[in-house]
Design the sequence.
C-alpha cells in the first residue's frame, strides 16, 4: 500500500519533508512551487496522483503569509488533480496564539486558518504541539496532534542532570511541563508572568516553587522573540538555580531572539525542527532534534489505518 502514498512539500521547510520521505522509504513528490515577479504563487504537480493518498508537508513559518498561501494553493492543486484523500501536514501552525477573543474587536485567526485549510481541500490535518488544544475543535475534519514531549524528555533523560527541576514558563503551559516533570521524575515549578498588551514584551513576576541549588529546565511550546525565555532564565538564577536549560517544540526565533539567547546565561536550548533552524539561528547552544521519524511514522499509520495513540504506548 505504501506505493499509493505521495508526499509533496512547498518551500517553507523542504529538509523536513525529505527527512519524512527518507523514513518512509519513498521519493518526495515532484512539483513546481514558485512565485512570479508579481508575487503570485504558482503550483504544478509533475506526476499524477489520481485516487492517491496525498500528504502536503508545509510548516506555516517565516515568511508566514507566503508559506500559508503556498500551502493553500498546493491543497487546491492536489484536490483538483483528483487525489483520493488529502492530508495537510502542518508541523508548525502559525496564528495559533490568536485562538480566542481576549480583547474587544479582534479576530480569531486560528479559526480562520482552520477554515482556509478545509476550504482549500484538506480532508484531515496532522500537526505538532498546538499552542492551544481547542484549535482542534476549530476544524470539521479529523485533526491528529503529535507532541514532541517524548523526544525532548528522552534527550534530557539521557543527559541525567543532577537535582533537576522542570519549570513551566507560564501558567498556561503548566500541564505540558507537569507531563515533562513526570517523565523525568522531577519536581515542578512555575513562572508567573504578565504580557504587556500586544507588545512583544513580558514582565516576569515570580517563581512559584523551589529552584535553589537545582538545575532548572524550562518548558514551552515555542520560542518566538526569546523575551520570555531570557526573563525566565534571569528569574531562576536570581532565585538560586545553579544552571538553566531550556526546551521547546517550535524554534520560531524571530526578531532579536538569536542575539538574546547568545547573550543569555542559559546553558543549552533544545528544540525540534518543526521550523527550520538554519543560518544565523544555528548557535552552539541550540540543539535541534528531528521530528521527521515521528511525522513519518504518523503518516504511515494514517495511510494504513493504524492507531496513532499506539505510537506512544511503550513510552
Sequence:
Amino acid at each position: 500500500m505504501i506505493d499509493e502514498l505521495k508526499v509533496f512539500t512547498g518551500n517553507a521547510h523542504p529538509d523536513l519533508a525529505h527527512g519524512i520521505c527518507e523514513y518512509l522509504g519513498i521519493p518526495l513528490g515532484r512539483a513546481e512551487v514558485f512565485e512570479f515577479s508579481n508575487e503570485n504563487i504558482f503550483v504544478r504537480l509533475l506526476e499524477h496522483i489520481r485516487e492517491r493518498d496525498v500528504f502536503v508537508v508545509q510548516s506555516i513559518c517565516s515568511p508566514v503569509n507566503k508559506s500559508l498561501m503556498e500551502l493553500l494553493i498546493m491543497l487546491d492543486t492536489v484536490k483538483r488533480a483528483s487525489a483520493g484523500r488529502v492530508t495537510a501536514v502542518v508541523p508548525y501552525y502559525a496564528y495559533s496564539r490568536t485562538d480566542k477573543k481576549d480583547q474587544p474587536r479582534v479576530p480569531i485567526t486560528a479559526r480562520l486558518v482552520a477554515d482556509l485549510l478545509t476550504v482549500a481541500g484538506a480532508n484531515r490535518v496532522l500537526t505538532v504541539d498546538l499552542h492551544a488544544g481547542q484549535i482542534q475543535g476549530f476544524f470539521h475534519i479529523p485533526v491528529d496532534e503529535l507532541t514532541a514531549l517524548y523526544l525532548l524528555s528522552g534527550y534530557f533523560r539521557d543527559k541525567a542532570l543532577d537535582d533537576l527541576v522542570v519549570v513551566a514558563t507560564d501558567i498556561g503551559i503548566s500541564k505540558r511541563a507537569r507531563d515533562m516533570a513526570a517523565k523525568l521524575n522531577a519536581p515542578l515549578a512555575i513562572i508567573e508572568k504578565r504580557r504587556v498588551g500586544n507588545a512583544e514584551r513580558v514582565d516576569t513576576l515570580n517563581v512559584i516553587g523551589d529552584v535553589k541549588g537545582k538545575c532548572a529546565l524550562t518548558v514551552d511550546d515555542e520560542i518566538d522573540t526569546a523575551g520570555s525565555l531570557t526573563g525566565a532564565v534571569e528569574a531562576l538564577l536570581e532565585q538560586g538555580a545553579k544552571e538553566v536549560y531550556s526546551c521547546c517544540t517550535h524554534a520560531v526565533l524571530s526578531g532579536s531572539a538569536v542575539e538574546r539567547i547568545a547573550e543569555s546565561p542559559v546553558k543549552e536550548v533544545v528544540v525540534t525542527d518543526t521550523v527550520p533552524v538554519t543560518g544565523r539561528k544555528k548557535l552552539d547552544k541550540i540543539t535541534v532534534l528531528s521530528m521527521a521519524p515521528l511525522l513519518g511514522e504518523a503518516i504511515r499509520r494514517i495511510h494504513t489505518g493504524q492507531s496513532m495513540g499506539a505510537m506512544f504506548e511503550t513510552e
